Amino acid sequence: MKKPLALLTVALLCVSCAPAPAESAGTTATASAPVSLSANSGPQAPGGTVPPTMGITWDQAGKDKAVKVAEKAMADFARPAVEEKQWANDLARWLTPQATADYSAVDPANIPATRVTGPATLTVDEANGYGVVAAVPTNAGTYTVQLLRTGKDAPWKVNRLTPPTS
User: Fold this and answer.
1) To the nearest whole number, what is the mean pLDDT of the chain?
2) Cβ-proximal residues to 54 (8 Å cutoff; 6+ apart), any chain
3) Dist CA 135 CA 146 (whole Å)
4) Each residue of 105-151: pLDDT tens digit?
5) How far does CA 96 lie from the centroid of its chain?
6) What kind and span of H or E run contains 103?
7) Which of 71, 80, 158 is CA-nearest to residue 112?
8) What pTM value is reported for the model?
């Protein structure tokens, strides 16, 4: 008697947690809030202008730190002969939480680069103090490294390492 009762309990829990059924084909969704407009009822960011950095401005120290993290992360990434667990642990210290999850399934043996061959160079958007892109040359071509930070004094973290296109 206990087994059927347990199965019934599990079934009821599954049904109660199931998502609500989708709307029927005859209904349409409506906006729950009006479209947000800027002052004078104009659209936000007219002409595609970029908002200010909200307090994070670029300085040489921030750029130097970003370059250093990009180079060190790429050096840890470009080690195809290292055992998978050691490779992932070494690389994780440079990564954002999302990148840590994304790169956890990478087999380092599939990485064509084995060393960094020169200094990283940054492409800085002066209006965005939270992110930057670095070009890091390797023996397999130049990788693009996206770095993010959560504040002016927060550490730079790598969000993406993109291999050369050719």
Assistant:
1) 79
2) 129
3) 9
4) 999 999 999 999 999 999 999 888 999 999 999 999 999 999 999 99
5) 7
6) helix 97-103
7) 80
8) 0.68
- Name the strand (E) or helix (H) holding 119: none
**Beta-bridge mates of residue 136:** 143
Bridge partners for 37 per DSSP: 43
Sign of CA dihedral 159, 88, 106, 164: positive
Buried b (16+ CB within 10 A) or exposed e, 128-144: bbeebbbbbbbebebbb
In angstroms, how far is CA 114 from the centroid of its own chain? 23
End-to-end CA distance of the chain: 65
DSSP state of 69: H
The torsion angles phi and psi of 70, rounded to 5 degrees, stand at -60, -45
Q: Which residues contact 85 (CB under 8 A, 6 or more apart)?
A: none
In the structure encoding, which two tokens stand for residue 15, read together?
């049904």
Locate 135 and state its tokens: 């070009």
Residues 6+ positions from 126 with CB-CB distance below 8 Å: 53, 58
d(CA 118, CA 121): 9
Region of 141 on the Ramachandran plot (φ > 0 left; ψ -120 to 50 alpha; else beta)? left
Strand, coil or helix: 120 = coil
